[in-house]
Structures are given as structure tokens and as C-alpha cells.
UniProtKB/TrEMBL annotation:
This is Lipopolysaccharide transport system ATP-binding protein. PANTHER family: TEICHOIC ACIDS EXPORT ATP-BINDING PROTEIN TAGH. Keywords: ATP-binding, Nucleotide-binding, Transport. Belongs to the ABC transporter superfamily. It comes from Larkinella arboricola. The keyword Nucleotide-binding applies.
Amino acid sequence: MAVITAEGISKRYIIDHKRGKKSSSIKDALSDQFGKIFKGKKTQELEHIEHEEFWALRDVNFSIEQGDRIGIVGHNGAGKSTLLKVLSKITEPTSGRIHIRGRIASLLEVGTGFHPELTGRENIFLNGAILGMTREEIRKQFDAIVDFGGIEKFLDTPVKRYSSGMYVRLGFAIAAHLDPEILIIDEVLAVGDAEFQKKSLGKMRDVSATGRTILFVSHNMTAVQALCNKSLYFERGQLIEQGETNQVIASYMSKVSKTKLLREWSTPEEAPGNDLVRIKKIEIVPEYVDGQLFIDVRTPFRIRFEYWNLMDRANLNLSLHLNSMTGECIFNVGSLSQPYSKGIIAGECLVPGHFLNDGTYNVSMMIVKDTVTPLYNMEEGLIFDVADYREGVAWYGKWPGYVRPQLSFHTEMIEENILND
């Protein structure tokens, strides 16, 4: 049964741009300003306002079934949060229709739905009333909300004195415990600490297990994959793809990733860095298999680097991070710390074949002094893709994990026909 249906949803905003009236000379400009101050000229006479149409959503169509856990992914500005506001009836669509079956609880921005002058206790009852709950229904869930939010000590403090983390914990606890049929959660969960995020994802799984529907916006693809069975991919206000989560995320990541195997700078003046060190070059050098021109799971490659040391004498080492595009660190390795004088320092790290799984990765490099003091950190210095390759395997689903090593692994029969005895 469909609980949310969107038919041709579009949302348009009008953006005003102020343009100053052009003056033909300094004299004219000064005259305009003095006229504005002393003669009471209206601002409109000095400024020209231009109107620009911005479509946050364009002709969006989808249907969500009861019990679905929907991830919504896309770049910043893709229309994700606007869609949630339309679904939550915070804003009206410019055109199109939305059919919703059931009660919605939304957690869209820090502090949304709270009255800052009221205490945490009072806001729990206020939010419950907004959701249509009776006072008795709220009382039944009250202790669970306070416990989950971890705000017992501040329960009778006005929420305007809460930190952003406390706001989020209380807001999520209210939204998840007051039994809405549809739960809408924006990226706001990123404000919480790791323990709270883990607890929140677990609670959302529990909520969905009872047949309720969840819409979850996040830039953390790991969280989306862990929670959501289906996903919607938005780009520039348009719904690009919808379907099974792993397939949608693979499509999204393939569009956002940009393979770049070499970055190089000719002089220290133009290179990234600071007065102590400057990056000269960072590159990935693959040892391609069978003459191919792309990296796959079999391909060994070297990460090579060069940098200018601008100090007379310093003990330096380089720390390399290989990260997934969803932000997890796959590994971190460091070179030995050695004394260097001024000049160009070079080195390389070998990553063997049959080690990484297919996917998109980035390399970050950090130059460190005395093994403890970071001098410069180049984040996402290189981005590259590892393609899939399988031989003798008939299964073509997504291979799990970030690493895919070839390890010594064998099986053998140690006794025959034991079931016939």
C-alpha cells in the first residue's frame, strides 16, 4: 500500500538580486550617495532589483510503500531538503500533488518544532500535541524519550540553553517515540556524536520493523546503505534514479567521482602548502594488467609523492590515508621519520593488487614533523576508481567490504560417505 505518492511536484523560488545604479563618473557616484543621505532619496532610485527564478524541484514523481526505508541522496542543493519540507507540509509545492496516508513526524533542522522559552519537558508535550497525540499517550512514552535523549539533568531547563547536540537528541527521541506512521529525518543527525548516531540508526531499524515508513537524507552513504532498502537520487531538483539502495548509490557515486591520477606544481610559489613545506607532486602509477588502461581489483599501483622542504633541518615523515568516497579510512601508513635539510623529498608506497574492493577512493597526504606535529595536510589529493573483475565466479552481486584480498584459503574432504553408515 502506498503511503506517499508524489505527482509532478515542482517548487520554485524567486531570488532577488540588487544591482547598484551605474554612475558615469566619481562625481555622479558621490552625488548619488549625498543625495541618499541628505535629500532622502529612496533606495529604489539608487538600486535596480533583478528577479531570478530558481527551481528547487522539477516535476518529481514517485511512490513510497508502507514499511519502506527510503534514502534520499544527492549533492548539496540537489533538492533533498526542499522535498522533505514539502512532504512535511512546511512549504507548499508550486505545482503538483502529494498524497500522504498517515501521521508524519519530521526532524529537519536543529530546533525545528521547539519553543525556545519552554523547557525540555514542556516541548515533549508540545511536540506530541502537534502530532495529534493525547496527553496520556505522551505520558506513556515520556520516560523512554527522556532516557533516549539523555537530557534528564536538563529536563526542566529552557531549550534555548541546549547545545545543538542536545537539541538533536531530544528532537529525534520525540520524533521516534511518538508513534508516527511516517518518520522523516534530515542530515541533522550528523550533529550527534558517533554513539548517538549508532543508537539512532538502531532505533530507525526498530521503527521500520513495526511497518512504519522512514525517509532519511544523509551524505553518509554507509548509513544509507545500512538503513535503507530503497533510495532516491536527486540532482538539480530532478529525480535522476530510484530503486534498490545499492544500485542507486553506485550510480550516484559513479557520477560524483572524478578519477585524477596526477597533480603537479612547477614552483613552490604556486604549490599548496605553507612557509614550511609545499607539495610538488602526488600521483598514482598503476601496473596495468593485460594491457588495459584502467585500475581493477587485480591492479597493483604505487602512490608517489614529492614535496619541498623549506626548513633548514627537520625530522619529517609522510602519512598517507586511503579513504572511501563515503568517508571511511581504509588504511593509514607512514614513512620513517628522518632528518632532512632544505630541498625536494620524494618517496612512494606500493599498494598490491587483489587488495582493494571495487569502488571509488581518495588519497590524502600529511607531512609530519617529529612524528607528532602535522605541518600540512592535503585532503583528497587524488581520486581514483577501482573496477570489478571476477574469474570463475558466477555471482555478480556487489562484493561486500572495502578490501578484497586473495588469502590462502582451501577446503578438503576429510571423510567420505559418513551419512550412509
